[in-house]
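Input record (one chain):
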Amino acid sequence: MGASALPSGTYEGSVIIVTGGGTGLGKAIACEFGRLGGAVGVLSRDEAHREAGVAAVEDAGGRALGVPCDIRDAESITRAFDVIEAGLGPIDALINNAAGNFPVPAEDMSPNAWRTVVDIVLNGTYLCSRELARRLIPTERAGSIVNVGASYAWTGGPGFAHSAAAKAGVKNLVETLSVEWAPYGIRVNGLVPGLIPHEDEVASIAAVPGKYEGQDDRVPAGRVGTPRELAWAATYLCSPYATYISGHSLVVDGANWQRRHTVQPPFTPIREQLGRPPFGQPIPPRP
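The corresponding structure, as predicted from the sequence alone:
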């Protein structure tokens, strides 16, 4: 786990933006680009997250710059990209990692909850991608975009209707934009993490009953993944070794999303899985 997947210095002279690069899987991805010589722009609304991301990249031997950005707002994205280019240089790659998510039955979900998650996950991914393309195309510079997705973009995601719908849109963006922007030398791929525990997991997801019980046994590979394994895949997809790969979504999950039962276990409604009372009854406060 101490090794890098690519040769040292692969990203020397390159500038990579990682949205949500100050926590969890985004931070791991940012660190790996920094370890390989890249200069990393860490975008986040949260100052503490930005500082943590920059510190982690620098600890890995890279350069980093934290910039405030609300990826739901096109003008905020433009300002952030301007700051990154002024501080680090022209942008070569973008990792659309920032997301919003929490478990909730669809009938309990407020309109604001739906809008917020879709706005961050789908609209934010599109707006950031568009911003980079608009900078690369006029200058005739090649580039790479990686959208962090989710396997329920294919299967549906009970309990996560907002995020599943948005991630399905993100997957479609991979397939659409890869074709539109290929003539300009811009590659667009997806990266889908499996069960990869990390210290920054969303509290409401971590609180799902049974979340951490026997996690290794839930994966065909016999273990959960590590953040750095996802980071290896991200650095590969943006690298010179993957220049003929575009429009693809790479799933890093030990074959877990392909798992099927010959005889399905008894069905448990999502409200029961989340420990929620029947619809219309008050939800008890967490202890």
